Amino acid sequence: MPSNTHRIRHRRGSGPTRGAVPAAALVILALAGPARAQTASPAADAEPGTLSTVDVEGSRTSQLGVADSANAGIVTREQLEARTVYRPAELLEATPGLIVSQHSGEGKANQFYLRGFNLDHGTDLRTTVDGVRVNQRSHAHGQGWTDLNFLMPELVTALGYRKGPYDASEGDFASAGAVSLRYADRLDRGIASLGVGQRGYRRAFVADSPQVGPGDGRLLYALEAMRNDGPFQNPDDYRKLNGVLRYSRGDEANGFNVTAMAYGAKWNATDQIPARAVASGA
Hints:
This protein has three helices and 13 strands, in the order H-E-H-E-E-E-E-E-E-E-E-E-E-E-E-H. Helix content is about 15%, strand content about 30%. A five-stranded mixed sheet has the order 1-7-8-5-6. A five-stranded antiparallel sheet has the order 9-10-11-12-13, with no helix packed on it. It starts with a helix and ends with a helix. Strand 5 and strand 6 (about 130-135) form a beta hairpin. It folds into two domains: about 70-185, TonB-dependent receptor, plug domain (Ferric Hydroxamate Uptake Protein, Chain A, domain 1); about 185-270, no CATH class. The chain is an alpha+beta fold.
């Protein structure tokens, strides 16, 4: 009797196991059906699509075989025109790793930071416009003072940069890097713009380069007038007049230009000490 009871229990326990096999098979078939439908072969008469041509242009002028290091490069005019510039010197931020800031009023020289290092107001960053050094060798605020508020972004055609003290050809003030800007000799068409913004911002700009005299001589002129109060409790009342006059002939390979520039500005500097303290001799 014990052995018979053991066999009956064994059959009852194995009964559900045998019944579960058909159920599992049904589940597998149900899942496999949609899979076969998704992997159906495409129609025989379908033709493969053809993608349109995509042109990829480099963002910077190639320096392979020209520059001694990847730390040197040239930013093109098209790239500079695509940048939004609030202050003229912010154009230099096209240099990778260079930050341009401002304090104590719009008319003061900018503060520069390269690769995380504070370069003060240009002490360690050599800056030139058409080969003319902007850094002042001697200044009460700091050696190498670089005031770029005279810069006209609309006239800049290229920006070259070198980062690092390895290039002795740059000379003084280039211990952290050097930036060179180039003005246009002629414009494709005349420019006239008028800008109005918040906090008293006003700017008018006009420029052109008509042909003058025989040959291909051009006379480029540009005039800028600007006013801005800035984000100060005591309004900045920044007033700027800026002008450029340039006569040029020939081209970059065989030509010359003669340039005259004039710049003047006045503003109320929000600085470390009030003017009344200086006037009183305190």
